[in-house]
Prior knowledge:
Keywords: Protein biosynthesis, RNA-binding, rRNA-binding, tRNA-binding. InterPro entries: RqcP (IPR025490), S4_RNA-bd (IPR002942), S4_RNA-bd_sf (IPR036986). Belongs to the RqcP family. This protein has helices spanning 3-9, 16-24, 69-72, 88-96, and strands at residues 28-30, 33-34, 46-51, 54-60, 76-83. The chain is globular, with a radius of gyration of 14 Å. The protein has one domain (3-83): Structural Genomics Hypothetical 15.5 Kd Protein In mrcA-pckA Intergenic Region, Chain A (Roll), CATH 3.10.290.10. By secondary structure, the protein is of the alpha+beta class.
Amino acid sequence: MRLDKYLKVSRLIKRRTLAKEVCDxxxxxxxxxxxxxxxxxxxxxxxAIRFGQKIVTVKVEDIKENPRKEExxxxxxVLGEVPVPRDEKEEDAYLKG
Length: 97
């Protein structure tokens, strides 16, 4: 399944056009590689998505074309969330502890 469609049906991102824009701005990685909206997503892939000031990492658990709202959360599992430093001073403080 295409990455932009997966982000939409899994409800990680509300709209497919927004998912495409996020991918075009290089804010999504599949298995630690930058991904385009047309990239294929497979079960077991690790996605890292940058939302504003945090990066959310999820693992693809299942792929369905049209899941119901209740099933959407079962398509992935959250591996973690990491804050993104805004500037060099903040980054140094974050890395030091």
